[in-house]
């Protein structure tokens, strides 16, 4: 796909927010190994520091990243008013729309995924859409304070090759809790020492947040690139 040939998406302006379609491209300088559609979490937009650093780090490793915003977040950008996420049915509908648009324009491996909620929504559709891979960054295995109500039923039969990058002390799915879930053999877990839901480690771990984000990007790039 050459620059500027996508419907409403201008790859030539990969560092700028596209008001017409709520898209952001981050493209590799060299060969593209794969493309990842990356959705944001419930409370932060597609250009949050986490999303920005992850997309740029992946692009530097040969992975083209396309970020988009769900309707409720795009509306907040326009008027500054905080809103709760759209109902799940609408979030899934938007994911389907974005995937179809990108699949029509992009050749080669196409993965889907996201931060927290964005990744969970992608996981509900990965098999249906026929995505080449699924990437979840800080998967919300359960809602805050509700570890007794895990949201993992669909993960037991997931067929799409999946990578979940998770902090060991994630409040929405720590290592001990996740060890007890019957996850599909197609799911690979990459744990980051003492990381929280944003993959930020405790200072005493000896790691910095930047190091963990870089490690996450390296794991994702290797997974999508077939390393």
UniProtKB/TrEMBL annotation:
User: Per its record, what are the GO molecular function terms?
Assistant: hydrolase activity
Keyword match 4Fe-4S: no
Recite the UniProt keywords alphabetically: Hydrolase
Key word Transport present in the record?
A: no
Record-given protein name: Alpha/beta family hydrolase
Q: Where is the KANL3/Tex30 alpha/beta hydrolase-like domain?
A: 33-224
Q: Which organism is it from?
A: Pseudomonas zhanjiangensis
Domain of life per record: Bacteria
